[in-house]
């Protein structure tokens, strides 16, 4: 069967403005959920964040950007500005947001001059315009040269309908064309395309997560630098990877996350929010890569992150980054492998890779294994095959009989996938030792092809009709 034809892309709208004018609040309003971190202090957003927005049936991709600051290009704010400048490439429209209550500032005027030199339609947005307090700033904004601004309150949702009226003449035709293509495909009974592999990169600060993703993409898509903790939001990037072994193009949604330090060291409100956001990204992912720093090896915090990923039921891989500068590489690799076997008792044989974000070493091998791991994570075994294994497992190692009371294990079924969950039915299961449960879990992994996937086994006894309710 041929691969389904891709639908036309949605129009893309980018949000631009100086720090703390409410860009991320507007982004969250348009996507209908809290995806971007929002705080009173300026400079919370540092990377581009993409979301799916809709206003009155008009669908488009909305891009949140870092606040535009007039700083040295080599500084962190300067590199954030460069990310914003790059993000305008390929966009269909730009929303220039300013704070109507603060009025037009010199930095607003600088951004306007830059935008006028670009080949992109601009919609001027006067945010924080609830009540009459923003009126003077709205009248003042006509001098920016973009016509009448859209007066709205991103926090309260006022004025979004007016934004639709300004955007429709710019992107409406492209949005409609995409909707029509999708309807025609559905009427023709075409298969829906498979979803991309949701792959999250997690780890301690400065392990090289953003640099690794930039290497995969072949562009400086994510902000990087020597400063630890640059990434604050969890940033998702859709990407197409060509598998060198087959030549097949495979879709991946890469998710970069904020670095996770020891809880005792996380005291600032913004970092707490960032770590919480990273945890939500793990829950959204299918496969999670825990990135280690070869110059620091495996630390206790890494094991805590790995355990958290497994507890969430995600498929886990470990990658040792900066392999190009690793000292005593063979000893390091074997030491990390041994420490993982000791420290992650709930899952044996977690895939381990040596990679380099600088040279690209090991990345194709790691990505190919990620697809295989997702396949195991999504696998379903027939009840007949499952119970044939179950009978053999019980015969090879019968359950114990504590105090002479026999534990009966009758049959097993797979209740769900992603992660795989199994239910064992029997009697006196409350007496079954934890060691025997581990025996069953390890057998499921080894004999049924679940490898290093986190497996759940639930014990279920029939209700006694004579027991007191």
TrEMBL record:
Pfam families cross-referenced by the UniProt entry: KH_dom-like, MMR_HSR1
Keyword NAD attributed: no
Record organism: Qipengyuania marisflavi
CDD domains xrefs: EngA1, EngA2
Protein's recorded name: GTPase Der
Similarity remark: Belongs to the TRAFAC class TrmE-Era-EngA-EngB-Septin-like GTPase superfamily. EngA (Der) GTPase family.
Binding site for GTP 2: 203-210, 256-260, 321-324
Keyword Nucleotide-binding: yes
Alphabetically ordered keywords of this record: GTP-binding, Nucleotide-binding, Repeat, Ribosome biogenesis
